[in-house]
Amino acid sequence: xxxxSLLHQVKRTGVLPGLPDKHFIxxxxxxxxxxxxxxxxxxxxxxxxxxxxxxDAEDTAIAVASARRAGEGAWKKxxxxxxxxxxxxxxxxxxxxxxxxxxxxxxDSGKTISEARGDVAGAARCFDYYxxxxxxxxxxxxxxxxxxxxxxxNEPVGVTAHIIxxxxxxxxxxxxxAPALAAGCTAVVKPAExxxxxxxxxxxxxxxxxxxxxxxxxxxxxxxxxxSPLTAHPDISHITFTGSTATGINVMQAAAxxxxxxxxxxxxxxxxxVLADCDIELALDNVVGAIFENAGQICSAxxxxxxxxxxxxxxxxxxxxxxxDLRMGHGLSESVNxxxxxxxxxxxxxxxxxxxxxxxxxxxxxxxxxTLDPATGKGWFFxxxxxxxxxxDDPVVQEEIFGPVLAVQVVDDFDEAVAAxxxxxxxxxxxxxxxxxSKAHRFAxxxxxGQVYVNEYFAGGIETPFGGNRKSGIGREKGLxxxxxxxxxxxxxxxx
Length: 496
Fold this sequence. Notes:
The chain is of the alpha/beta class. The chain is built from 16 helices and 23 strands. The protein is globular and about 70 Å long. The model has no long low-confidence stretch (mean pLDDT 97).
């Protein structure tokens, strides 16, 4: 079936046939030990579209044991150049199955098909990138003098756990699993229970690409039933977690009991600073994308607009119109550019923030309400929302709403803009729009953030390290630094 026919069929039926409904363990599909099943919901319709295995601690233990056997056996014997070939082959298979993966991502997450296609392309690029790194993970030599040969070896850390969020299921799986495999580690993946499908599909593609049995396993189920026993398992050497700060603290505590290392990509309340000297059209385009892409369900979303007073009124007027021009609806409709909220529970959380803001008399020039798909009257949607002229200590400024809600802070000059940018407990990313490169460099120096964007929000790519400071996390993903997270260094010194 052509990609166009497949998309048309799924739009008509609401179902994509052939989706996996079991765990992927030891190179094969495996039902849950307890026989349980769960439903996966289509946020655009607010109804189930598939079922999948509800795992537990027994399934988790089986997967970890499989990963450990593979790491100590077949995978250990695979040369780095062969790891590179397998990852490159996986990138090709992702592209070959791109439309099916994208449609699945829409059905599971609620995002638009254009966003999902971008995610799939990014996942393929991720495997391309780390395929290139697999055979270049070099050690170093140390100058101890002519009587010694001293050098280091980068060894895989062992079995790695990957706890995947629901907002970018395929992208986040790829960006942590690919460098782990490049380093020679094995993996046990626990996708969010709201969005399990593409992690399962990716594991099968990796196996097809030549990954030995047990190198990449996926166990589906709830955080309590699967995530907790996985992060607490004594055979896990490294945990990569993306999600809320509160859950990240629990993950770190679990890792500490086994002296496992962690990469934590946690919450964000990122500032997008717009100075009076900026290119207004460029800034408007980027502010809209920074907060309303994926309906604002992005840890690094530009969820705070810090804007100079001189341009505030006119900028907000135009921004309100841009927000109202967004076309909301089910993600499989190619005319839509604003998708659904992932779950009823999350929609209620966003709504509660705006109900509270409204009760306190805050200015909401547009949005602020849950709504439905205009075409069908179904789904979990929230209007693109702007809350204007907020005090720095307001909950809408300080707390991660994780939805299409932009908090506006008005400042009088550059120095106040930097102070406003740093006013929360989070420090994931920060953006600035200005024609003054001196101010841009000063901002990059003075803002506390893991990455800084100048005149393009979400700039960068898989090559660029990503991660946060303070309550936004520990460690970095993407770039070559990610491979180092999955390695342990052994130094060898020989007296000649």
